[in-house]
Design brief:
Layout: H1 2-30, H2 33-38
Length: about 40
C-alpha cells in the first residue's frame, strides 16, 4: 500500500516537472507569457 502511494507521488512530481519544462520551452518559442495561460 505504501509503495502505491510513493508511486503516485513520483508520477505527480514527474508530471509537474515535465509541465514546468514544457512551459519554459513554450515561453522561449513563443516569447509571449500570455500564450502559456491560454495553452
Amino acid at each position: 500500500m505504501l509503495a502505491v502511494i510513493v508511486n503516485i507521488e513520483y508520477v505527480l512530481l514527474t508530471v509537474k516537472g515535465f509541465t514546468f519544462i514544457e512551459t519554459k520551452l513554450t515561453r522561449k518559442i513563443w516569447g509571449y507569457p500570455w500564450m502559456n495561460k491560454t495553452l
